[in-house]
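User: My collaborator and I are trying to settle a disagreement about how two of our proteins should look. Neither of us wants to argue from intuition anymore, so we agreed to look at predicted structures for both before our next call. Could you fold the first one, then the second, and keep them clearly separated?

Assistant: That sounds like a sensible way to settle it. I'll keep them separate. The first protein:
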Amino acid sequence: MMSKRFLLTIPLMMAIVIAACSGGGGGGDAPTRGDVIVYVAVPLSGFQANGGQTILGGVRLAAAEINNDGGLLGYRVVVRPLDDESDSDVALSRTDEIRQAIDAGDRVLAVIGHLNSGQTLAAMDVYQDLPLVVIAATASEQSLTERNYDNFFRVNANDSVQANVSADFLVDQLQAKSVAVLYNNTEYGRGLAASLVDDLRARGATIALQAEVEEGQSIYTDEVAQIKNAAPDAIFYAGYEIEAPYLRAALVESGVDAPMLASDGAFLAATIDESNGAAEGMYVNAFAPSPRNAADDQWIEAYQAVEYRNPDTYSVNGYVALQVLAEAVRKADSFERAAVTESLRSNSFDTLLSSLRFEPDGDLVDPQIWVYQVVDNEFQQVAN
């Protein structure tokens, strides 16, 4: 049990670290004009709760820094978590809470989320008609920016970019002439796999195998047998950290030694932790560098003070999403949807990652994909 003295010092530690992170002394008066609400819609329970929590943590840190520096146009940024449970029906139902808040007179600025493309697609049916902006931190399904949403943006690359980078890495870096492509049965998994197959064939590689698995699947006896029979030079998996470690473990245990590249959905500590030691050597795509590659020790300490845990891989994405949103508001000098969306399309934004700009459809100009390899049970960057 913690001592009373330790409990009493936590708020003081938080204040000191956050103040240091924002330039010391707060940099401005405390927000006094009221509250502006930012919802963070991600899974906070169930099998992807950790992934959602990392995004939420990044947003919370950015909000703490903004508020310590005088707020956003003088308003305190209030972060409201919204648990979509990684379920599209739940995500759609959760939009009622946002609509009710708007109807009750709350100043709702934006939704940051969702973690997955399926939940984002479902909720955008409602968000497109609400007076708010949506900034996705990790949703990558390509059609999200092909549906003419006026208020949708994302700070991550889409799946066509990831497929292109993955095909280059498999063919040029891993020297693969034949690739087994496996994917989970989600919009994300299917869309990314289809794009990758096209890009591999365009580079002269053959598709040794295409196989769909269940979201959350943990036993891969049949799939491993198919892969062994196909004898590919490399394996690509489009899915999540709730499947990738078990697939990797099954492959290693069966003696398959072809290199494996997993998609961004597996770029979480669980891919290493749940693989029974088999993750060593595998490659994983990422939408952002890991916190230790992107940020300094001060940023990490500030995150720990706000969240009481270490940042994980998507913490950077959540932080950058609110950075971009806040700067767009400042440049627009307005919280109104039309003004903020115009600001997002017209300006560049300095972030923890780099200077970001948006295409008219809401995708990034010059988006990046990073590639990591598991070395000594840690993600080590090998390409970007």
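The second protein, kept apart from the first:
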Amino acid sequence: MIGSLEGRFFLAFIALHEEKSFSRAADRLGYVQSTVTTHIQQLEKICGQKLFHRYPRGIELTEAGKIFSKFAYQYVHLSQSLKESMNELNQPCGTIRIRTQESFFLTRMLPFVQEYTRNSPSVNLRIEHGSYQDILNGVLDYELDFGIVPQNPNRHEILFYPYMEETIVFAASEDITQKVRNEGVQILNDELFISNGTSCLYHTTAVDVLKDAGIIVKDALELPSLEMIKQYVSCGKGFALLPEIAINNELKTGTLKLLPFNSKMIFSHGLIIHKNRELSFTAKSFQSELLRFFNK
């Protein structure tokens, strides 16, 4: 098999996996669509397995494709590391892939990204957002160099570097908050609970806190954006779970109010890396800069 595999096959596989379309994968690689199709067909012939399901609405990995993807990402990563090592880099360059929660990026990480990209213009920093499980899976499957998660996964394959704590709070409009003060938290049983969804670690923790307070979530709304959640709640539509830092301005202006819960939800954010991932010079430099930024 090793004698038949070529680097361009791996690149075509990853592009198709991420773009979910032969035409978009071809545009990304600068190929015509038939070239990508040929590369995938050759790859499937070499592997002796079908790697993609083809549907009218797009493509999905088969079980064999999911297994192959881990090796494809490792191959591309090692190729990039080798290139950097051979060039005897004097400064970081190449691509770093990292995934984090949207709320953490907007409230905590953006200043670091602005500083890092200014100081390391040759680095292509690819930042994605996802839920806790999305981030963990990306690191486990070798798709990512790094992930940032709100708690230690406590898995033997993962290295966890904690660097800050985050307080999560329940917030609502002035009207709903006043009703809670006057009538008690039980009135929240009839209010809409808004969060990033059940795949979010914050959500599952909050449901437990609400349950301890005698509140059963009957009606929930999942919104993908931090700003959407804030705007929706400020209109008096239910109550939400949000990082406290994300609503500092709204708390100052009175647009949002903290709901009176005794339970504090504190999460320890940190960087995760697959322990078997060989970090490139650039990745090691990025890790050092990130930890230095937050530790200061």
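Some points you might bring to the call about the second protein. The longest strand covers residues 158-172. The CA atoms of residues 148 and 271 lie 5 Å apart.
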